Amino acid sequence: MDDVKIRLLQTLEQNHRVTTKTLATMLKLTEDDVKQMIKEMEEARIILGYVTLVDWEKANNNDNVTAIIDVKVTPQRDVGFDEIAERICRFPEVKGVYLMSGAYDLSVIIEGTSMKKVAFFVAEKLASLENVQSTATHFVLKKYKQDGIVFEEDNKDHRLVVSP
Q1: Which residues of the chain have a pLDDT value below 50?
Q2: 3-state secondary structure the chain
Q3: Which of 24, 62, 83, 163 is least surrounded by CB atoms within 10 angstroms?
Q4: Are the CB atoms for 112 and 121 separated by under 8 Å?
Q5: Quick one: 39 and 69 in the same domain?
Q6: Do residues 85 and 29 both lie within one domain?
Q7: For the stretch 113-139, what's the b/e string if a residue is b when 16 or more beta carbons lie within 10 angstroms of its beta carbon?
Q8: Residue 120's pLDDT is what?
Q9: What domain range is 84 assigned to?
Q10: 0.90 exceeded by the pTM?
Q11: For 9, left (φ over 0), alpha (ψ -120 to 50), or beta?
């Protein structure tokens, strides 16, 4: 992939609301060229979607609980971890699934409306899947940074006080 497409992707990743006109100016291309490149990358599934990151605590709508679940599985012959990961992805509660190195094989991020519902999801749906050996659930207590965006900017003055 050439440098222009990489720069386009990096810019869109930081702010998907940048206009094609602004992108064209930044990349020294025509607006039609930028539109065509974006269309091609969407069709090739390089660009998978556009998201808005919301701080739900500030919106006073923080009813959801987020949990990170470490899952140890038995890999299957010829498909490894892919088949079990694809099954886990189908649950609507699941927001992300990652193959990991270390003590656990998969890291699953889920959202539920309460800790109890997350616990039932783990016990009834996730842990009961064939080839799942064990799980370890970690509840997110506070988000500081996500997708490169800091949730609370530190606006404190860190200078030392000088007194006469």
Answers
A1: none
A2: CCHHHHHHHHHHHHCCCCCHHHHHHHHCCCHHHHHHHHHHHHHCCCCCCCCCCCCCCCCCCCCCEEEEEEEEECCECCCECHHHHHHHHCCCCEEEEEECCCCCCEEEEEEECCHHHHHHHHHHHHCCCCCEEEEEEEECCCCCEECCEECCCCCCCCCCCCCC
A3: 163
A4: yes
A5: no
A6: no
A7: eeeeebeebbeeebeeeeebeebebee
A8: 94
A9: 65-142
A10: no
A11: alpha
The whole-number pLDDT of residue 62 equals: 67
Residue 81: CATH number of its domain:
3.30.70.920
Tally Cβ neighbours within 10 Å of residue 65. 18
Per-residue model confidence as pLDDT tens digits over 39-85: 999 999 999 988 887 777 777 766 789 999 999 999 888 888 999 99
| Token pair belonging to 66 | 């987020």
Amino acid letter for position 117: K
The average confidence (pLDDT) of the chain is 89
Q: Say what the pLDDT of residue 80 is.
A: 87
When divided into structural domains, the chain yields a total of 2
108 lies in a domain?
yes
